[in-house]
Amino acid sequence: MAKIVKGRLITFEGTEGSGKSTQAGLLYGYLVSKKKRVMYLREPGGVRISEAIRRVLLDVQNKEMNDICETLLYMAARSQLVTEVIAPALKKGTIVLCDRFLDSTIIYQGMGCGVDVDFIKHVGKVVTQGIKPDLTLLFDIEIKKGLFRKGKVKDRIEERSLKYHSKVRRGYLELARQEPHRIKVIPVGKSQRIDRSKEEIQEAVRRWVNPLVGT
Question: Which of 62, 24, 61, 26 minimizes the C-alpha distance to 43?
């Protein structure tokens, strides 16, 4: 299937508590103020069926879910969102901001859980209809700090071990090294102890986004 190129797909990635959702929301407001045709989506979710799958995936009661089941549920939610919303929006020239996309599955289920990455990429190519992000913003935060930000109530993925989340972080940074032209790493902290303000981080976001969307 031919790649859809009319619109722009910008994805937001990062470990738990990295602030990616906050930054995506701020960018959405900024682009609206610039009179851009833009939409903001989240994964898994965004449409009715995908939101139902999200509830299953994140429910802490579903401890018996195996890694392949988890992977395919994420793919199913993504397939529905791409078909219903993302592909039609890109055809119309819309800027699509998506909080997580295929990279999340490659990292969380592939690098984190050990599911075969080539398998994920193969299924992912079908699920995404060949659509790839024009830009991916990766928000990097120290693992313990990010999990602390999430508070005491955590979902099924967030409550996994520090070892797991550390593998996820390393996987993201390695992916960024492999694809530096697409994936831009934005550090959340100025140092190990001091965080950058959300305004400072948003400035970095806009520096990458403005040339892409013509603002």
Answer: 24
As a whole number of angstroms, the longest Cα–Cα distance in the chain is: 47
Sorted by where each starts, the structural domains of the chain and their CATH numbers stand as: 8-213 (3.40.50.300)
Query: In a structure prediction context, what are the per-residue pLDDT tens digits for the chain, which is 215 residues long?
Result: 444 347 999 999 999 999 999 999 999 999 999 999 999 999 999 999 999 999 999 999 999 999 999 999 999 999 999 999 999 999 999 999 999 999 999 999 999 999 999 999 999 999 999 999 999 999 999 999 999 999 889 999 999 999 999 999 999 999 999 999 999 999 998 776 778 999 999 999 999 999 999 98
Q: Which one-letter DSSP state was computed for residue 84?
A: I
User: What does DSSP say about strands 95-99 and 38-42: parallel, antiparallel, or unpaired?
Assistant: parallel
Question: Full-prediction pTM beyond 0.90?
Answer: yes
Q: How many CB atoms lie within 10 A of CB 204?
A: 17
For 157-171, letters b (16+ CB in 10 Å) and e give: bbebeeeebebbbeb
Contact 11, 176 (CB under 8 A): no
Residue 117's CB is within 10 A of a number of other CB atoms, namely 16
